[in-house]
Amino acid sequence: MMNDIPCIACALTGGSCCLNRQIVLTLGDVQRINVCVGQHDFFTIEKPEPWYLDPFYDPAWLPLVLNPEGLFRVLKRNSDKSCGMLTKTGCVLPFESRPLVCQLHPYMYTETEIIGIDDTCPISKEKDGLTILDKLNMPMEKAIGWQHLLYNELHTERNEKTLFNNSDQAGKRT
What we know:
By secondary structure, the chain is an alpha+beta fold. The protein has one domain (21-165). It has 6 helices and 7 strands, in the order H-H-E-H-E-E-E-H-E-E-H-H-E. The chain has helices at residues 6-12, 27-37, 61-65, 100-104, 129-135, 140-159, and strands at residues 43-46, 72-75, 86-87, 90-91, 107-109, 114-117, 172-173. The longest helix is centred in the C-terminal third of the chain and has 20 residues, at 140-159. It is globular. The relative contact order is 0.20.
């Protein structure tokens, strides 16, 4: 039954990993989403919220996502701080077009490993959480692939100094 899937149960109670989060986008994410939605106005460049500045489990993260001005590229949010891609029926993006950080959620990760499941996700409370992720077509093997792709894209962007280049002109700075 659909309500047995923790993601749906969470959403039905008004909770969601798509609320009150700044969803970081790689340039690869922007390109994948643009192909899907056919527009470039779905992201913005903004300052991280104060809670975001504590890298807590991955010290490599902030240097990879913040530009020299301390800003980063994120999906736009609605006035209630929900993701701009979120509707009452879920995300408008097909799974493979979603930002890599969304594809990885609820896995927690560093540059070098998957370190667990986010304890704010109901799946983390289930004794068979990894089995549930397998049933959702999110097995550990896929998560490792998404994690590698995420960090490869971040490093490529950083090394090519393309953070917030001309491709971001459509994004609005806030």
